[in-house]
Design goal:
mainly beta; Jelly Rolls; Collagen; ADIPO protein; secreted; signal
């Protein structure tokens, strides 16, 4: 028994160097060799961490997350440009009538006007012609007894006259405060009836008088009137002075 044990130990000692030589040549023992599983070596130390690998491909999108809370309102932006006007909308229904307003103060309307005609055929020269046919004299500012218009409301007035001329020439003038303002002359044509006329705008003060008068001698007094021919004189207030109350 001792001889067998000694022989076995010698055999192992002879085989071990060969296995070590083979391992030195190959770096690692061949698993097919008899010594591969006979004796394991001690575990080595862990190696150093290798370099990071390259990024992998993007994965597929995940499921949509839940809606988050509303954020804080940001600052107000600059106003934008005005857009083009839109189409006109349909017309609305009429509104209800408003309440009746308070009654205002009545405004005084200034009136002054007259329109008169001649009755006698040939008025006297160099004196006011007395037009006694009254067409309009509601304010009684014209005096038929004197033939003069008396201003009661200061302002701007319009005066006009239209005279029938017959039998002889006519020279007339419109007077204001004893001064002739305009003149009219018409030369009579034999066997004919003429017309002489004139008009003027005058500013009058309260108390001013205006009238029509034949001037010159009697051969220039052809102002005429009958049942089919009239000679007229008229005037009216256009507008009163601003300071009239």
């Amino acid at each position: 028994m001792r001889g067998s044990a000694g022989f076995l130990l010698c055999s192992l000692l002879l085989v071990a160097p060969q296995c070590a030589e083979v391992a030195a040549q190959d770096g690692q023992p061949d698993p097919k060799t008899p010594c591969a599983n006979w004796m394991g070596g001690a575990p080595g130390y862990p190696g150093h961490n290798g370099l990071p690998g390259r990024d992998g491909k993007d994965g597929k999108d995940g499921l949509k997350g839940e809606k988050g809370e509303q954020g804080v309102e940001g600052p107000r932006g600059d106003p934008g440009e005005i857009g083009t006007p839109g189409h006109e909308g349909p017309r609305g229904f009429p509104g209800y009538p408003g309440q009746k307003g308070e009654k205002g103060e009545g405004a005084f309307v200034y009136r002054s006007a007259f329109s008169v005609g001649l009755k006698e055929r040939a008025p006297h020269p160099n004196v006011p012609i007395r037009f006694s046919k009254i067409f309009y004299n509601e304010q009684s500012h014209y005096d038929a007894s004197t033939g003069k218009f008396l201003c009661s409301i200061p302002g701007t007035y319009y005066f006009a006259y239209h005279l029938t001329v017959y039998l002889t020439d006519v020279k007339v003038s419109l007077y204001k405060k004893d001064k002739a303002v305009i003149f009219t002359y018409d030369q009579f044509q034999t066997n004919n009836v003429d017309q002489a006329s004139g008009s003027v705008l005058l500013h009058l003060s309260s108390g001013d008088e205006v009238w029509l008068q034949v001037y010159g001698e009697g051969d220039n007094n052809g102002v005429y009137a009958d049942n089919i021919n009239d000679s007229t004189f008229m005037g009216f207030l256009l507008y009163p002075d601003p300071d009239v109350h």
